[in-house]
Amino acid sequence: MAKIEPSQARFVVTEEPGAVRVTIPVNRTWSLILFVGFWLCGWAFGEFFSIYQLLAGKWESALSRLFTIAWLGAWTVAGAYIISTWLWGLAGREVILLRPDSLTLRRKVFGMGRSDEFDPRQIRKLRVPPLPFDARKSPFGRDSWFWKSGSIAFDYGASTHRFGFNLDEAEAKLLLEAIKKRLPLQEAKRTW
To answer: Residue 185 CB: number of other CB atoms within 10 A?
Structure first.
């Protein structure tokens, strides 16, 4: 019988002047990262070969040219999505910045990303909703639209926002406790 040691949470909480920073590195699956990197080499060959065919202008019919243009468009969109997912798996991280007057969520890859800032007085029902399945068993997390997913949710006006991408439920609960201690949340008030 193997003795199982308790695991540590992946997120790191650091105190800064006037703020608390929570950093969540992506849960890397190196075998998947290597496989997708290899697959992207084949994707790039298909992309450049199709572009070459279009520029060379050697067509048997207008229909074959139209098919290549349509195929190239779909191939490019799919490739861009796979590249962004691969980069996220390689170097992604979430940064949550807690200040008395704001909650800032940022998902970034190689230091670049978009930030969303929220007024903590408008945040309602900060929670860990039940996961539909084990996020760790999916290569890219809870759902493939990773920019909108997360293990922690809150209501903000008439919309729900999520963060804590690919956190285990226990990790998400620990993070939720840490956030609630540091963020001045208001109790929900009925407005109807």
So the answer is: 17
Q: Is the sign of the CA dihedral 36, 45, 113, 20 positive or negative?
A: positive
Query: Going by DSSP bridges, is the β-strand pair 123-127/152-156 parallel, antiparallel, or unpaired?
Result: antiparallel
In three-state form (DSSP H/G/I as H, E/B as E, the rest C), the secondary structure along 88-142 is HHHHEEEEEEEECCEEEEEEEECCEEEEEEECHHHEEEEECCCCCCCHHHCCCCC
- Six-digit token string for 49: 């070969």
pLDDT tens digit at each of 192 positions of the chain: 889 888 888 899 998 898 899 999 988 889 989 999 999 999 999 999 888 888 887 777 888 888 889 999 999 999 999 998 899 889 999 999 998 889 999 999 998 988 999 998 899 999 998 765 554 444 444 444 444 578 899 999 999 999 998 788 899 999 998 888 877 665 544 444
How many domains, in total, are found in the chain?
2
The model's pTM is 0.73
What is the chain's length?
Answer: 192
Residue numbers of the domain that contains 169: 12-27+95-182
Q: Which two tokens stand for residue 144?
A: 């493939």
Domain boundary among the residues 89, 106, 126 is at: 89
